[in-house]
Amino acid sequence: KVHKDGNLITDEAIPGIDLMIAIGVIIMLLGFLGCCGAIRENRCLLLIFFVSLLVIFVLLLALGILGAVEEKKVKQEVTRRLVRIINQFFSFQLKCCGLVNGPSDWDKVPDSCRCNATEPNCTSSVYSTPCSTQIINLMEKHMKVVLGIAFSIAILLIFGMVLSMILYCQISRKDTASTA
Asked: Which cystines does this chain contain (predicted)?
């Protein structure tokens, strides 16, 4: 595929797309499982749904804690991975050059690093700010949104677990009452 800029879109240009698709399929299947369990009043399906949501919640919580505790390592890993995918797209879109040390990262400064001297971050007609700094600034700028989304997902998971367990217990009481 080719982006509207004329850049080639490769698997490296869109990291984790397969993982996102897999997660989407799993979430869809879990939703279907929960609906089937509720409609059929099947305790086994509801219990599987509850346990699955609990596992996802624990993983989400663990990743959040790990990300907060290992913030320095996360930044290092982001920088390391960006080395592989840095290209003209980032330089052009984020108005930056190089990854870590700015223009000195390149033996020959690419055209995408060139700028008008009137632009911010532009020294001697080349962007002076490294792309890793721009990307980390962008991530930090949107971190509240990301944390808000993660928190909302966690609340929805807890809500789903509570409702599935309430339904599970009501079905248990109904089954006990009908056999007595």
From this structure: 97-115
